[in-house]
Fold these 2 entries.
Entry 1:
Amino acid sequence: MIRHLEIVTSGQGLWELTEALKDCVGEAGVKEGLVTLFVQHTSASLVVQENADPSARRDLEEWLNRLVVEGDRIFTHTLEGPDDMPAHIKAALTATSLAIPVSGGRPMLGTWQGVFLWEHRKQGSVRKVAVHLSSD
Amino acid sequence: MIRHLEIVTSGQGLWELTEALKDCVGEAGVKEGLVTLFVQHTSASLVVQENADPSARRDLEEWLNRLVVEGDRIFTHTLEGPDDMPAHIKAALTATSLAIPVSGGRPMLGTWQGVFLWEHRKQGSVRKVAVHLSSD
Amino acid sequence: MIRHLEIVTSGQGLWELTEALKDCVGEAGVKEGLVTLFVQHTSASLVVQENADPSARRDLEEWLNRLVVEGDRIFTHTLEGPDDMPAHIKAALTATSLAIPVSGGRPMLGTWQGVFLWEHRKQGSVRKVAVHLSSD
């Protein structure tokens, strides 16, 4: 079964989609199986991170922003703005697809795990995540 | 079908779970299909690496420890210890889920591939990996 | 259903397999379902990247080559050549498996997304990607 998630982002950062994902699994009626997410963009990605303390997400983003800097002199792909090439690199270093087993009608996330779309562009966008659900 | 793997780690590093995974596939009786692993933590991850020469795994770990350093001045998420925020970053840079086709009753790993849980915390822990198995 | 893709690489870089993947899905007759790719090597990986402007792929590769340098003094795994250990690290930082939902008989790639095998060794090789296909 295919479902579609849309995440409206207004800027760089981690946008949580855990609840939308749980709803998706619940509405599809999957009790045991597998849910697979695939982000349909090359300047956004998926990440599972701590859902409790926002400081962990802030530090994660700061750290990656320092690793992949705008205006790097080796960049030639600059027509779409200074944050475009860093966005592609950040997407390549994180996940485009993510598969989570489902049990008891819920994705089997650990206690502190949340699922996030990571927006790498400054302007934000409407981001599409294709979701595949299979029942055992 | 859902199975559970527990990997007891006593410190940072790559803990091989290839044999446990093969046993899991064998016991489930999957001849052809797909096995999906999902690590239920935000400070441990999954990696497929060379299973022959331990020096490759050592170098991989050393390299990542140098890239993501403890005590980085940009970190604000420090309450759980100096190795906690680096652990979250390392987990984000590697894999939370991993899907491997199964053929002939075995995960289709290449000759030199092993599957490892990468423990990023110094103290180690009991790490849970949810395993989903499907038969064609 | 299991299929096999072979990508002949003649050196480092991103080798597109989008068309081969579409053919694979089409020939298998999957209309709606999931396709999962798994690279059977530890010195090559998978990446979804912009398929339009080759400069994005060039910059991505240049950037990663600067991050993971040959001849790094911490490397001890050097018997197989100076590009071997960097190849393992690059593979660990990118994807070994990739799962893409299928709809209308095609992988649900976004408009600008292409799927690439990323060859990390200088000499190139014949790279094997195991492909699992499931129909809903």
Entry 2:
Amino acid sequence: MKEIELLKKILPSLHQADSVEVGPGDDCAVLDLGADHLLLAAVDQVVANVHYDLDATAPQLIAAKLLKRNLSDIAAMGGSASWALLALASTHNNDSWYTDFYAGLESEALRWDVSICGGDLTGLRQTVPGDVASLTILGTVPGRFPALRSNALSGELLYATGCFGNSYSSGHHLNFSPRLREGKFLAETFTRTMIDVSDGLLLDAGRLAIASRVGVEMWPEAVPRRTGAALEQVMGDGEDYELLFTVAPDAAARLEKSWPFSEVLLTRIGRIIVGPPGVVVNRQGQPLAEIYPAGFNHVVK
Amino acid sequence: MKEIELLKKILPSLHQADSVEVGPGDDCAVLDLGADHLLLAAVDQVVANVHYDLDATAPQLIAAKLLKRNLSDIAAMGGSASWALLALASTHNNDSWYTDFYAGLESEALRWDVSICGGDLTGLRQTVPGDVASLTILGTVPGRFPALRSNALSGELLYATGCFGNSYSSGHHLNFSPRLREGKFLAETFTRTMIDVSDGLLLDAGRLAIASRVGVEMWPEAVPRRTGAALEQVMGDGEDYELLFTVAPDAAARLEKSWPFSEVLLTRIGRIIVGPPGVVVNRQGQPLAEIYPAGFNHVVK
């Protein structure tokens, strides 16, 4: 968490040109090129033994996870993903590891209609495994209204896709499916406020609330749990890669009725309230961070 | 070089959508978003003790080098740089190193009108220093004709900006100035074929020749040398970050007369010939790779 706190201080202070509609601080940057569509851009990385167990994870799965993490950021804006660029620094010295990594990336990219249009590869001469792979995803979103973290209004209802907790031991962190179709459907009709839940439900709900300067009332017992997950894991574990979003009360029934993705849970888990900005409470008004204090940590080893 | 060879095999085989005008293999990918301008995208990284000496290099300079390497790729397309995203994985555990790194990045970005619109930071828990920083640069190029590696025609003259060799010990690899203005000027009027020389003049001339399916006659004695550089360093050293490009014979005199950058050398160093594609020879027809066999290697330690 230390790194995220540091970035949160540095990134918003960086100067942004007028063409940057949304800069650092949301799931993607939103850039205006003068086309009908806005450009979405985000970068994310996976690091050996931080985001995956190097000895136990096939290179194909590492590559697929890297792409899908980034796709989840595009999904949270309601966008479509189009292009990706990969930078890989690796200690592996056998060609087959790289070939497998790229095969996994290519196969996942084909599944989501993404072109891997650029790349860089550096061999590391270290004795300690230290693979670092970063991927920049580029996509588009129609018109001038991508879903942002900062648009929530008090009175709106809080919804989530899928279920939560226990991502590592269940293998979900490798085999999840980014919610691209769902994000697009939601942003087109039902929501202007969305975030991808990757660092823990409670933490990411807090981020949405901070960005929107609102409070959140969340109902922990209503949140769908992944098999084997205790309630504190549901609230605190990372790597769920689900969407958290708000819906106007008068649209909620229509959303639930028209939800076309029968295999993906859609659950009302709380509401936006007037309250201290960024604070997530339960029905009794108790801050959930006090009840579930364990923050998310990516370290797998 | 091993990594580059591997990428050269893998990247061109990746599937590209119709929106990808130019895929992997040139200095930038060229993407069509349906705007007046085409989008340029490239990724490059700097790794501790591969691209710089970790103990001896200020974080500000590392960050600036990373951005400028990428700007050099935009320059080689004749484009303008607009946005950048940074992924940083670092073993440093003091905030001041990161603050200095971002300060260096921001200051260089302001100089070139680039907005740092996104980033990711991962802390590494290693005992061995293994910092990896990758940056994706995004830019634009007007119309449908960026300068490419693949447009050279036999009979054209070969030109280069600046001087070559001895980049590491002279400090040029840290304090160079990417040729953005020069690249734009050249692509607007004088050339359709350009490459950035970052892996050694001979190697990058060969790449231009392979992409264009032509031969190159190069005049080593005509190439401007950086102070202290022997001829083999001029031909083989990397990290020059100069532009290599071709000009039609009837435009050469006009180019030399109208060159507006008095502080940047402009030198005719050879010509495009009919010959085995990718082979660079001297006036006597001898392959220069036989005379200057030392290939470039980024390792600084």
